[in-house]
Each structure stands twice: as structure tokens, then as C-alpha cells.
Amino acid sequence: MAWVVLFVAGLFEVAWAVGLKFTDGFTRLWPTLWTLATMAVSFALLGLALRALPLGTAYAVWTGIGTVGTAALGMVLFDEPAEAGRLACIAAIVAGIVGLKLLSPS
């Protein structure tokens, strides 16, 4: 169950990271409130996952999910480049996440 909670925490990390773009430097009220709310949920879920998972593993997976999701949405929503080298680096992050899951004692 801790892995599911960690995965959802990572999705909320993606939500707040993308939300930052829409806040326009925290000058827009609703995007700012959305970003702060998703940030709080993400941190709370990470904290719950840490009850059962090792800190280093959980944090690396959480940030990895956030990194991959944010990079993917950057390509889709903001026309950021989707070049082969960039996609290969993102794939390496995914491989690291999967490796940490497979090698984790929990």
C-alpha cells in the first residue's frame, strides 16, 4: 500500500509543479491556491509512505515520478522539445524508479 500512496504523492507533485507555471509568479489566485493545495497533498502522502518505505528510496521515487511527469506534460502542454536525447534521459529516470522499486525491501 505504501507504494501506491507514494505513486499518488508523485502524481500530486506533477500537479503542483505544472501548477507553478500557471500561477504566473504567484500573481493569479486560483492557480496559486491549486498549486498550494496539491503541494500539501503531495507532501502529506509522501510522509505517509515514509512510514513503511526507506527515506532515500521513497524520496528518489517521488522526485523521479515528479520529474518524468512534469517533463512529459511540459512537452504536451508547453511545446517543450521531445528530442531523442531528452527522451532517453527521461527513460533512464524511469528505469531508475523501476530499479528502486524492484530492489526495495518493502
Notes on the structure:
With 106 residues, the chain is mainly alpha-helical. The protein has one domain (2-103). The protein contains four helices and no strands. The chain has helices at 2-23, 29-49, 55-78, 84-103. Helix 1 (2-23) packs across helix 3. The longest helix is centred in the middle third of the chain and has 24 residues, at 55-78. It is flat, with a radius of gyration of 15 Å.
Number of strands: 0
Report the order of strands and helices.
HHHH
The average pLDDT score comes to: 96
Distance between the termini: 10 Å
The radius of gyration over CA amounts to 15 Å
> What form results from the Cα inertia axes?
flat
DSSP summary: helix tally: 4
Low-pLDDT sequence parts: none
Global structural class: mainly alpha
State the oligomer: single chain
Instruction: State the helicity in percent bands.
Output: over 70%
Sheet having the most strands: none
Indicate the proportion of strand residues.
under 5%
Work out the count of structural domains.
1
Keywords: Cell membrane, Membrane, Transmembrane, Transmembrane helix, Transport
Membrane topology: Multi-pass membrane protein
Subcellular location: Cell membrane
GO molecular function, one term: transmembrane transporter activity
